[in-house]
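This part of the workshop introduces the protein records we will be handling. A record pairs a protein's sequence with a compact description of its fold. Backbone structure tokens are a discrete shorthand for how the chain folds in space. The question running through the whole workshop is how a given chain folds. The record below serves as our worked example for the rest of this section.
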Amino acid sequence: MRDISIAFYGIWLLAAVLLVLFETEVLPMGIVDDKAVSVYYFKLVGISLALVLVPISLKYFHRYVKQTSEMTLAKYRRASLWRLTALATPFFFNLFIYFLTLNRSAGFMALLVLVATIFCLPNRHIVEKIYSDSKQDQL
């Protein structure tokens, strides 16, 4: 449970650090021309990643937890970390595209994915239920 929380808050902390670094111009901002053809493909990949991975990670996790008959803490941990990784990938990709091109659509996608991570906050109730079920199975 603790490592899931660390991963969750780590994504938000890294996002805040990157935001400060880009806004204070420690990292270069707006160095890629927005009119370049390659920017179109970067935006296409970023939007596609967000549109595919956000629904899959949110819906898959819920179905996985509900359908798995022998849910253990290790399985819950692995699925939670997979879900956070699946959301962090399009977030950081779109964040870098936004700051390198200053294109609003990539920034919007990064914000959308970051908001979706709120639904990945570890749920103590589910973890306690899984823990109590695994203890009862051992008896």
User: Anything to note?
Assistant: The chain has a mean pLDDT of 84. The chain has one domain: 2-29+36-138.
